[in-house]
């Protein structure tokens, strides 16, 4: 489990869980139970909100507390007498060979498209960015769960707004407490919904273009506009979400075969 001592990240994670719990409390205990009184529609809506919040928390947990793809600190760099970088086994490094480069901060040899995170103080494979809302980097191993977190937060926000509007139509007479909670939930849902929708679109765009945020920022304008030869979009999405039916992509679990996981980890060792 990875816990970053970053004040901004700790505040954002705490705020995320607090708002999810507040949403669950309002919809379930302030609206559904008092208004529907064991009605069938109340049961259905209760199951929906509990499922969405559970999946959002599970996705957030996997994105926040699991390895995003840290490059192992197993092959340290040293300076040879002629000024060229070598690894700890005294073999000459060739940073341009197969895209591998040397990181002078971690003092290691890292694979292609791995970048250094100044907050985690580690190099991360296919690093997209460091997200304070999960207090962790978003990289090759946890991008799927970060995207699912955005998706379920967005789905919870949309559902909450629609449910509040529907309850106002079905039960126009409400207590003062229910009205205040309804307004607060709608404001929270709108703010969070717009935010996660923006980030979600950026994440999908990074998959389609096969470029992380850092990869894009490091390119000049001409390189960004240059045409790319990319595999089909389905293959690009499978690289992030894994193989199997598309409905399995919505489950915050790892469906990779053990051989695939082993092969991915073994790519770090050269």
UniProtKB/TrEMBL annotation:
Which InterPro entries does the entry mention? Palmitoyltrfase_DHHC (IPR001594), PFA4/ZDH16/20/ERF2-like (IPR039859)
What's an example of a GO molecular-function annotation for this chain?
A: protein-cysteine S-palmitoyltransferase activity
Show the stretches that span the lipid bilayer. 12-33, 39-58, 145-167, 179-201
Any GO CC annotation of this UniProt entry: membrane
Protein location: Membrane
Instruction: Indicate yes or no for the key word Ubl conjugation.
Output: no
> Catalyzes what?
L-cysteinyl-[protein] + hexadecanoyl-CoA = S-hexadecanoyl-L-cysteinyl-[protein] + CoA
Give residue ranges for domain Palmitoyltransferase DHHC: 100-215
Q: Which UniProt keywords apply?
A: Acyltransferase, Membrane, Transferase, Transmembrane, Transmembrane helix
Lipid bilayer topology: Multi-pass membrane protein
Query: Known EC number(s)?
Result: 2.3.1.225
Under PANTHER family, the record lists: PALMITOYLTRANSFERASE ZDHHC16
Similarity-based family: Belongs to the DHHC palmitoyltransferase family.
What is recorded about the protein's domains? The DHHC domain is required for palmitoyltransferase activity.
Give the protein name, as stated in the record: Palmitoyltransferase
Give the originating organism. Answer: Adineta ricciae (Rotifer)
